[in-house]
Amino acid sequence: MGGFESFAALVDYPVYVVTAAAGPDRAGCLVGFAGQCSIEPPRFVVWISKANHTYTVASHASILVVHLLPEARHDLAELFGGRTGDEVDKFATAAWQPGPHGVPVLTGAMAWFAGRVLERTDRGDGVDGGDHVGFVLEPLDATTTSHGRPLTYRDVQDIDAGHPA
Q1: Cα gap 104→98, rounded to integer Å
Q2: How many whole angstroms from its chain centre is CA 71?
Q3: ∠82-84-89 over CA atoms, to 5°?
Q4: What is the C-alpha to C-alpha distance for residues 25 and 17, in angstroms, rounded to an integer?
Q5: Looking at residue 1, what is its pLDDT?
Q6: Which of the four pLDDT bands, split at 50, 70 and 90, describes residue 75?
Q7: The domain defined by 3-156 carries CATH number 2.30.110.10
Q8: Would you list the domain boundaries of the chain?
Q9: What proportions of the chain, in percent to the nearest 5, are helix, strand and coil?
């Protein structure tokens, strides 16, 4: 392992489950690339793989819900990261309720926020953004249900991505 891979291997960060709804379609996936990108006004960006079923639904959604999972909920990470919405209805298994604009809110999350999609970006100044698209969100509503250590990237390295390569 060299260069950037060595650098990235040293970093650990929270993972999130992002859910979306557009018309009758709903989707959700495990997201490893996300974070606050502005203080004033508050903004958060989530990067969703172009190969992911959730990307298709999120591309037509105006609101996304970003969930922070507690470390004990590896099962939710496995469901939303290891299965693809192209083949299974993840919401038939997971406990959830309709949130803002009907977007699913997972009951097992330690915290979540709904955000209005302000921009979708996979290119910046003519530079290819890679295999993910950034969804810049304006936080609208947030709820914290518990505290503790969130599930992190290192906690979920055993999950093989469910979406097609």
Answers
A1: 5
A2: 16
A3: 110
A4: 17
A5: 57
A6: very high
A7: yes
A8: 3-156
A9: 20, 40, 40
User: Scanning the structure block, which residue is given the tokens 């304006």?
Assistant: 138
Cα angle: 50, vertex 82, 111; to 5 degrees: 85
**Amino acid symbol at 126:** G
Q: What is the pLDDT of residues 6-34, one digit of tens each?
A: 887 788 899 999 999 999 999 999 999 99
Cα separations in angstroms, 58 against 9, 28, 54 = 29, 9, 6
Q: Where are the beta strands (DSSP E) in the chain?
A: 16-22, 25-31, 34-38, 43-49, 63-68, 96-98, 104-106, 111-121, 123-124, 127-128, 132-144
Per-residue model confidence as pLDDT tens digits over 102-159: 999 999 999 999 999 999 987 655 556 678 899 999 999 999 998 889 999 999 988 8
The first and second tokens of residue 8, run together, are: 């990235």
Q: What phi-psi label fits residue 7: left (phi over 0), alpha (psi between -120 and 50 degrees) or beta?
A: alpha
Q: Which residues contact 72 (CB under 8 A, 6 or more apart)?
A: none
